[in-house]
Amino acid sequence: MSENNNVQLNKNEPIRILHCVAGIGRGGYETYIMNLYRNIDRTKVQFDFLYSFGGVYRKEIEALGGRLYRIPFITEKGPFVYTASVRKFFKEHPEYKIVHSHMDKFSGLIMREAKRAGVPVRISHSHSVANAGLMIYRLVKNFYGIMIEPNCTHRFACSREAGQWLFGKDRSDVTVVKNGINLANFTPEDTRDRDKFTISCVGRLAPEKNHTFLLDVFSKVYEKRPCAQLVLAGAGEEQHNLEQKAKALGISGAVEFMGDCDNVYDVLHKSDVMCLPSLFEGLGIVFIEAQACGVKCVASDRVPQEARVSDDILFLPIEKGAEYWAEQILALDVTEKKDNHQSIRDRGYDIKEVAERVQEFYIEKYSACGEK
What we know:
Layout: E1 15-20, H1 28-39, E2 45-51, H2 58-64, E3 68-70, H3 74-77, H4 79-92, E4 98-101, H5 107-116, E5 121-126, H6 135-145, H7 148-151, E6 154-157, H8 160-167, E7 174-176, E8 197-202, H9 211-224, E9 228-233, H10 239-249, E10 255-259, H11 264-269, E11 273-276, H12 285-292, E12 296-300, E13 313-316, H13 322-330, H14 341-346, H15 351-368
Helix pairs in contact: 1-15, 4-5, 9-10, 9-13
């Protein structure tokens, strides 16, 4: 079940926090956790991961000193094996005093099993505002979601809306933990090709990101500005369908599928506009990153307003249609890239400050457990 032998902590080691995630790929909340991990004082706090699906962050986690424990996900082996695996893990690893789960409604099972195992600090962290997947999958998630309320001790969310979705609109004890970014990477550097009009989209190629609508929008832009190009940074199950649609629209030559990419800032530095018409987002950290690079952003109005950290973002209704979106994109003034860093700091999205606050929380709660 695990990739590590049982290791009993001693007082000379850093506090070890168990992060429970579905996978360790380059998704939104995974990126947030890694940003946090890189910026905490790892002589004081270390991150370990209980996960099911592999990904690009595995080697970095190991290099930073993290431990990885893999269990089969519910979609691989079914709910009984998944539940038994979670229960067995906590039985074999009584050393964890703080469990931080990022699995939206699936966090309910993590919270319940952690409570049964006597884990004193159990954090449920919301990163979404909607259930994705087929009806049966959503029903299963809702079942697990009921377990959060009686079993978690702390409630975190990446935005107010994300907190309301997972924990209820009337809760007053939800802590919004900002999805901070490393501002040193996301600077208003301008490496654009001035002979082109580059629209980028950074995000998994998944239905909720609504790339199919983006292709419709781009085809309208391309009609009016043949120098336009669309760069899609991200991988996912929708890639084949999107490639086929781009071909059908006659824009294949102007659309680049980059796949998984670890240099998002380079993509943004080369962009005139970053457009992501998501059907839903917990926050949309890429909008924070893009504004840090001084890139004009166009988002659907289903993205939380907390993503507005400057004047460089425009929220549009999907219902207005592709032609309207294209007109709004072409009307943007992309002459210069502004420095929005102070505005982003003022709104609490500097990862160094976020990491410091989260680290203090871990240490305080760990100390309250009676550990030295």
